[in-house]
Amino acid sequence: MATFEESLIRTDVFSFLITKRPSKENLEAYVRLLQEHNVVAVVRVCEPSYPTNIVEEKGLVVYDWDFPDGQGPPKSVLVKWGKLVRETYFSNNATSDHEKPKTIALHCLAGLGRAPVLVAVALIQFGLTPLQAVELVRSKRKGAFNSKQLKFLLKYKKSKKICQIA
Description:
The chain is of the alpha/beta class and about 170 residues long. Helices cover about 40% and strands about 15% of the residues. It has 7 helices and 5 strands; from the N terminus they run ββαβαβαβαααα. Strands 1-2-5-3-4 form a 5-stranded mixed sheet, with helices on both faces. β3 (about 40-45), α2 (about 55) and β4 form a beta-alpha-beta unit.
């Protein structure tokens, strides 16, 4: 049985599923995991290791936003990430109180750096302090963030361009 070392990070507003990178060989199991968590989008922030068509055939959107391992994300990724979070959780299509929460899944190679950084950025953008966001992610994802990523997050300032709810 495939293990993706998944971590679910849920708040009153958000639901994020962080995993390690799936492969062609375990992709069917990965898709089942995504379906169990009501995932609506997959954010792949590492080099591709599987074809997206199997995931997309199940009605999920896959976003490829690769950026260098061990780093904070570039502004272009932050803007796209903020837009996805806004559209998923703050649009007219957001989950009602009676539905299972929508989840955004994210993965990088091991699920310890790039993917957790994006989750922490969303938490900061929409209400938590950097320290609170780091603590929440680390409470669910042991070993998340290297020293460069931690420094990036602790210095991170909310951006109106990323945070804007329209």
